[in-house]
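Hello,

I think I submitted the zinc ion job twice by accident. Can you confirm which output corresponds to this input? Input:
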Amino acid sequence: MTMIGLEIHCQLTNLQSKLFCTCKANYREFKINENICPVCIGLPGSLPRLNQEAVKKATMIAMALNCSTPEKIAFFRKNYFYPDSPKNFQITQLNIYGDTSVGGTGSIMVGDKKIRITRIQLEEDPGRLIYEGSSSKNQITLVDYNRAGTPLVEIVTEPDFENPKQVRDFLNILSDLLANLGVADPSLEGAMRADANVSIKGGKKVEIKNIGSFHDLEKAVHFEITRQESLHSRDIGIIQETRHWDDQRKITVSSRSKEEELDYRYFLEGDIPWIRIDSDIHQKLKSEMPESISSKKERYISKYNIPAQVADVLSSDKFYSDMFEKAHTESNAKEVANIITTDLMGLVDTREKRIASKLTFTHLKELADSIQSGKVSRSSSKNALHEILKTGKDLSAIITEFDLGNVSDESELSEIITHVISEESQAVEQAKSNPQTINYLVGKVMQKTKGKADPTLTLNLLKKHIGIS
Ligand SMILES: [Zn+2]
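Support: Only one job matched these inputs. Its output is below.
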């Protein structure tokens, strides 16, 4: 049996400041080594001050993953020398004196499979190394400390995954959950990174480090299973080792042997006191948590009668569910959901497109209302949506500019219908004996009006002209 466990590092990208100083958590907007201070570059005499908001957000993540949340949390020093860590230690958490990390054991369902969470810890991200030239032959490595000290939540799972697909499904659920909580934007480059450990039956555990994106994580796990199975089939032993993911060649490569936990000389961080999070605070945090994805889905189904599949897609993505929440009314909810899931999703399927989009919830509301009132047809509404995304113009201006309005003038439609009736005498006779076949004639009127005839009015007029009820 294949066993896969994950260690996922999620940056709390929505926070204002770093974990122990007032430098910005959003280090991406700075020039190299401009987002630093004595604390985050570890100058002697500087003292860390814990970002309370980071503790709250990390606790919320623990709660959302059904983890236990201890009353007291502590921070530890993990000592190691590496250029990306200016202090020569990382402030992190460790369950050595009981459960003192922000989250203890928990679990989450991935389809029918229960994935157990071992712990959740809050820690600081190291800086970034920049290699000059090609990575294998480079002579110079530069260090950017802008990222050093940004808040990171590490989620450790038990080795409960059996295949790469379960890994991918879990990652999708997790990134939706983090976005829904409003604690992180998982689509930001480097916001989600992971290590994985993989072992096949009869083999040793191999750890894969440094996987820079969720997309690559699935690939890395897949590669590693194939590699180990190939060795096993040739009776070659699988050694316990640490491997790195080479994202250029898309393979795992053996790296230096992993330091034992003891080598880190963990000890309590004396500059940060133990933090008490009593049940009142836990209760308050629980009440501040946004509605869960599953609860949103249930509400969309039961309150608005939205089909389960549509509700599922709509609720799991925060961008779309936020749009829906603001744009819908009691009467247009189904139509708004329909526009989002059938038209909008295909048009704004990347982070860049979402940022560039000029669409507001007011546009979306007007669009749904206009479809419902017969002002525009569904097919014309797609064209209008396209134009709104690009220009952000008012729907009414776009309808006029591109002549997208429905033909709802009775005399104009009657004239077209008279033509259709004279051209389609056979279909008219058929409709008289079998009223359901009238849809064929509705289709003909639509053709002549390029899809812009008001469908309800067309049907009523056709019936009147043919003389059926
Ligand atoms: Zn700083």
